[in-house]
Design brief:
two-stranded antiparallel ribbon, 328 residues, mainly alpha, 12 helices
């Protein structure tokens, strides 16, 4: 009985061992497939887009001027999401990965993300309008007007304003960020109040069409090429300031909020882009190593087969000789 139980346990352990071994093989195969996909599926130009995005976001870590951060983030982010993996848009790949089970809530995909990635991949103007319509302009203009009522706004007042935005990672509150708040307050003259206190995306449409008409380009951003969108976006701020100062003042608040969005949430996207670059590099190294390893293994197997065949011939000849001698 004891021997039977011991044999049963031994067989069970062997089964578990085989299961874990095959699970390890499966995991290794999955890793190699991912590396190969990144190595072969991401072109050199697309890898440079991703590296450029990472460098841009790294520049937001200290002393951000938030309105400039917003412009740089939109251009770099749009370029990064125009990258492709085996022809599949990067945004679709990222959205699929963020739908995997087990991710923290702040990283898991939601219904809004697919549209976010789509607009960013269309071009910087579509990306700008998308971010713009997400911002809480009403609340922010109200906070700015309250700040303007103070006899003298101190640095801690500016920091408190920045900390009031409950986002993760937190908004930078160093001296450059404080200076950015002061510059916004001076440019928009917040003490005057605001004629427009909502997101400006719809009010900007007429200005976008006016700029596009002068160039004989499509009037809808989604129909423009990325380079056309970039050109229109570069002229947009000055065009609005020249034709509607009140709209321009609210647009500055909107742009400031866009910059805070890029400075905070951009860090997670930069990490994802950096991982894609690293995986591509690892895949580029893996492929030739696998090729060499396969060639070596093939050579070893063939050599062993030849050696076994040679040994078989020798043994066969010896047997024939022994048989002949026995017959004699």
């Amino acid at each position: 009985m004891g021997q039977a139980q011991g044999a049963w346990r031994f067989g069970l352990l062997r089964s578990y061992g085989r299961l874990w071994r095959w699970a390890g093989y499966g995991l290794l195969a999955a890793v190699l497939i991912v590396l190969a996909a990144a190595g072969l599926g991401i072109s050199g130009n697309d890898a440079e887009r991703l590296r450029g995005f990472v460098r841009t976001v790294d520049g937001f870590r200290a002393n951000p001027e938030f309105r400039q951060v917003g412009v740089r983030y939109i251009h770099a982010g749009s370029g990064a999401l125009q990258a492709r993996v085996f022809g599949v848009p990067a945004g679709r790949v990222l959205h699929t990965l963020r739908r995997l089970p087990g991710l923290p809530p702040r990283l898991a995909a939601n219904d809004h993300l697919a549209l976010h990635y789509q607009h960013f991949s269309e071009g910087p103007l579509s990306a700008y309008l998308h971010l713009t319509r997400q911002q809480g302009v009403w609340d922010t203009t109200g906070m700015l007007m309250e700040l303007a009522k103070r006899p003298a706004m101190g640095d801690e007042d500016a920091r408190a304003f920045l900390r009031s935005f409950d986002v993760w990672p937190a908004v930078v509150t160093d001296q450059g960020a404080v200076a950015s708040v002061r510059k916004l307050m001076a440019d928009v003259e917040a003490g005057r109040g605001f004629v427009f206190r909502k997101a400006v995306d719809e009010m900007l449409e007429a200005h976008i069409r006016a700029i596009a008409q002068t160039k004989d380009w499509p009037l809808e951003p989604r129909l423009m090429t990325p380079s056309q969108q970039e050109a229109v976006l570069e002229e947009l701020d000055e065009h609005v300031k020249r034709t509607s100062v009140e709209l321009w003042r609210t647009k500055q608040v909107n742009d400031f909020l866009n910059g805070m969005w890029g400075q905070t949430f951009g860090r997670s996207y930069a990490r994802a882009a950096q991982w894609a670059v690293w995986l591509r590099l690892a895949g580029r190294v893996e492929i030739p190593l696998l090729a060499v390893g396969l060639a070596v293994r093939t050579w070893v197997v063939r050599r062993r087969v030849r050696e076994a065949a040679a040994v078989g011939k020798v043994v066969g000849a010896a047997k024939e000789k022994l048989g002949a001698s026995l017959r004699v």
